[in-house]
Amino acid sequence: MAFGKTSVSKKLSFSLLIILWSTTIFWVGWQSPSIIGGPFVTQDEEANKAKFYPLDRFVISVPGDNLPHYLLLEMALKSRSTNVSRILKEADPLVRNSLMKMFSRKHFNQLNDSKQLENLQREALVLLSNVLTENKYEIEIDEVLFTRMVIQ
């Protein structure tokens, strides 16, 4: 009988060991992303992900050789900063005024040349960055994108 009790206690000990081992393996597997780190840990990509903020369309009078022309411009700003929507809503009059001044100084031929598009985007980026900084708006604009540009 002593052999039977030892056998039962060995079986019980072995069963407990298997249960403990399985529980430990399950826990380590469940916690491995936080324990190991690296590619298993999800990064906060939203903080670094650029977002696009469309502005209301502009209709601007542009001087031409004989007649005035009109420019319909739709654009968006690309930024990784936080609170961009709120800041753009507050600074909307500054942004619109600055862009209207910039484009109204351009000649029709200058705006009608597709090779000038990138230069205009860079000029608008520098202009908006400066205007917002001068007026104490903490926003960093990565890029200015013209999403639609019609000149008549």
UniProtKB/TrEMBL annotation:
Places the protein is found: Cell inner membrane; Cell membrane
Stretches that traverse the bilayer: 12-30
Keywords annotated in UniProt: Cell inner membrane, Cell membrane, Cell projection, Chemotaxis, Cilium, Flagellar rotation, Flagellum, Membrane, Transmembrane, Transmembrane helix
Membrane topology qualifier: Single-pass membrane protein
CC annotations in GO: bacterial-type flagellum basal body; plasma membrane
InterPro entries: FliL (IPR005503)
Major subcellular location class: membrane
Coiled coil: none
GO biological process, alphabetically ordered: bacterial-type flagellum-dependent swarming motility; chemotaxis
Protein function: Controls the rotational direction of flagella during chemotaxis.
Alphabetized PANTHER family for the sequence: FLAGELLAR PROTEIN FLIL
Homology family: Belongs to the FliL family.
Protein name stated in the entry: Flagellar protein FliL
Organism: Shewanella psychrophila
